[in-house]
Design goal:
Chain lengths: 316, 316, 316, 316
């Protein structure tokens, strides 16, 4: 069995005493990927990295990573590659183009795509990987830049049980919670479903508090009532969009930090496209996507996604 | 002070040892009101009731209530009246028509409207009550028929602090949680805001699970992920709309019992009208209202409101 | 028959040779009402006017109108009163309060409400009018300030056939098209239904052209295609929201003039409330209302309603 | 110039005296394509056809077409190929797979894709075609099965001016109106924008008439008012969704014939995906898509798209 053969390649890290891959590749050193790659290094793995941004690469080589000249160059001497890229198209390009990961990886290599993409992209890549005996799992994350830095990301993994177990120790170096969501693509599916529900309940919370305020309610009182009643949700309880209800959330810090409007719009766009293909009816999810697009059109792409409260409330 | 004067009228119930009104009126003995009136009787209050439905009245007189011939007849000898009626118009009629409560109540009488109405209705009635020295609070409930029966309703009360304290002991005979939401109308406002958020997060949950299912996710796995992530809400965690995820919720019992589609549509209609008047922007709340209207148009008014999952999923 | 008796009161205007009411009252001399009242004067009618704004009244008395001190004062010596007021509440106040039109009008007086209101308001007033033998019709208008000035408004009239015929000659002094829509309230209903469809097709046009532009289409080519195909509507053909497609429409004049966002939002709010009461499902109409509310929240209440194109397109 | 060289290949048809391609290929003989291919034959062209459905092929060979064994077999001896396929994926497969049209076509062949697809699909195929000197235009149609039969389709063509002129005579054998919409992909873009606006105005019309009916309006009166006012659109005027307003439209024939709900849902899905990629805000277009998806979920996929009136109105 290929997963068993692969697991034979694990060695024990001197630094941590845990089993680990001897040599790891990483592609995509952006806001998230840069921190994730550093955490792999910290666990004592050897790391070879690639990014089109030279500065991002230098930041990693300075702390001990090796530099590759292409995705194909990353994959040629490693047992496992993690990719963290900004879009479907970037992922398809890195995996699929001439000299991409799929055509260059050796048999039994494990490819982990932590980008957030359409589940169909993951499934397409997995099928092609299978033809040449390469293992693929999707493992998108939640938790944002701070969790990437602290190594406390949640990984939602789609792939065979064997590949999940194979990937888990490495993912543990970057995250605190590693969840098996099902076959390939199901990591993406779980992330998109969760984030769509998050967007809907955040906008719903913003609307309820906007209406409450215009009707004359004290919004701290409303928060107490909602959070002990059937309206309770993560957004009302732990990430309230009204400034001053909770300390230390973006709404109380001018909607800075957190999970940006443009990132939420991207995830909702992926959910929307997946729903079109799957012929699933998602009226509120679709409208949530449109609302975040309108917020971007009005110039607030960089605010935290709880800014929707201010968008609805207005300034007049 | 009128609230102090009124409170002088409390006597100590022999049965319970608690302070109570010596004589209570109750108008509206429907599914909810019938149970609520019984619970008042059980606490040892004297009760006089009115309803247009003779059978509903007989049910109460059999267990010790007195019968009144009109709202005016209810209010003439009591210190407090509770009303539980199905619509804005019923409330306006009972309070406002010739021989209605407002024109017949004695000075310092406390009128508690537990109907769910537009906050403006409560505020209008309170202003008229004030002219003749009558006290008014709105006190809509949540919890449904079972909580009405068990005396475990939540009351969301709008009115002066004095009137809230005055109403509280009586409300305690019918409910387990009595919350002061602010001035008159704010009980209604809090209920409508909570229920609008509930509808939005329920539909959002139904959409996320509908999309997940069509993408191939195991829905129990999805529930685990969502409920430990940012998509978590009361609807996903305690009232999941997918049959078989939770025992003992309506979705696992053919969507029977629970909180009906038509009641949710009514509350969303009230929230919508309040938002039109208050000029509040509530796009998802509005769409939630329309979705429940469409479910009614398709013939499922009597199902529990979590039936929206089946509506979206379809039967083809 | 009361309509016959009333029609006996017509006299022939010296100025125009047409039958006319000898003496007309007018209440509400705002942007629309001021022009409408002048056009009545121009047709040789005697006119007595009332408004809370003293300047608005002076403008009319300078050109020959008499001044009344209250609605009751307007109605005491006339056979017909036209009202043109900004909201449900203003109409209810002018007609219903102590010394309002309904309690002061003589038998057989004709009251024409040209305000845009909820059809239920018209129906409520008509029922009260009937009790004292007073005639009521609703006659909301379309066409905007320019048509009010030029006397080319369209009147959508709800009332009995007799009252419609009675009102028609007077309405002809202010409008070019007088349409009988059915019983009382149906003028309002027709206006709200038309304007809701107008808002939906305007936003739909704005979306289609926004999408077309982002996909790379020449928007004049798109306009030609749409206007000779099944997407054709009044908004695409005669009031295109894209600057430069048509001359002499608001979009080509910085979205100034025309039919303001806040007026459209008001009509959509009335349609929404009427739909809540009538239990009609109107998902796009509801969302159109919310979109115009969001445009107001973003500070563009005074732009023409075709500004939605810019709102969706954004500025980034 | 390749377009000039290609045009050299035109010969004059004996039957019609018009210039025509000597030999034409056709792929996709479904409800639309079968009629379109017959109309090409009728104009005296030699035709070679391919479909996976053997019966569909026999129907054409019986009237004189030749049979090909694959897309590659179609293209090997012709100057022009028309394709009419049901989805993005079918088009990509026919053009792109091993032995697909693109790898098999000779230099200067003209490929006309009349399928409705994402504009990005057309643009991707055109780029690949260009590499081997093959010409590609997108030419989706409107008009439905009857227009396909009668040869009165509208073709919306995207491609260079030269290729448009080259394609035009052949398209004239199938359609009455051949419109040049811009570069490759713009035929698709124009069709999707038009159909999205059509869906929005159809649903808007259905909502306006649904509201009107519930408010008590005579719907023939409402149709007269709307069609002479600003609510006028193709759907209200020529394809009214209310039974009995117009003769000879699907709503007056039990919503049979016409443009099916599932086809409209497909086009709206394409518009939605294109908007996600183009980052265009289309709230009503998105909701229209969801409404048609809900109609499918409720079991009415095969009704004409004006059936939305019945969906909203309901049956209770």
């Amino acid at each position: 069995m290929s997963s068993f053969t692969s697991s034979m390649k694990f060695i024990v890290c001197v630094a941590t005493g845990k089993r680990c891959f001897s040599r790891v590749g990483f592609i995509g050193l952006g806001n998230m990927g840069g921190h994730m790659a550093r955490n792999i290094l910290k666990q004592g793995h050897k790391l070879i990295v690639f990014d089109v941004d030279e500065l991002a690469v230098s930041n990693l080589t300075e702390v001990g990573a090796d530099r590759a000249s292409s995705p194909a160059d990353v994959v040629k001497d490693v047992e496992v590659v993690v990719s963290m890229l900004p879009s479907n198209q970037h992922v398809l390009d890195v995996y699929n183009i001439k000299n991409g990961l799929l055509s260059s990886a050796k048999r039994d290599t494990l490819l982990i795509d932590s980008s957030t993409t359409d589940p169909f992209v993951s499934q397409t890549l997995a099928k092609e990987a299978e033809k040449s005996g390469v293992n693929f799992v999707d493992g998108p994350v939640s938790g944002g830049v701070n969790a990437a830095k602290d190594g406390t990301l949640t990984f939602m993994v789609g792939g065979s049980k064997g590949n999940f177990e194979l990937a888990k120790p490495l993912l543990k170096s970057m995250g605190s919670r590693i969840v098996h969501c099902g076959d390939v693509g199901m990591g993406q599916a779980a992330k998109l479903c969760n984030n769509m529900l998050l967007a809907v309940s955040m906008i719903g919370t913003a609307e309820a508090f906007n209406l409450g305020q215009k009707l004359g309610l004290d919004l701290k009182v409303l928060a107490d009532i909602v959070n002990s009643s059937s309206g309770r949700c993560w957004s009302s309880e732990l990430y309230n969009p009204v400034p001053g209800i909770l300390d230390n959330v973006p709404s109380s810090k001018n909607y800075e930090g957190g999970f940006g409007v443009s990132l939420m719009a991207k995830d909702l766009g992926l959910a929307q496209s997946a729903a079109v293909n799957a012929e699933a009816t998602i009226p509120l999810g679709s409208l949530a996507h449109q609302i975040y697009r309108a917020i971007i059109a009005q110039g607030s792409a960089k605010k935290d996604f709880s800014f929707v409260y201010q968008f609805l409330k207005g300034t007049r």
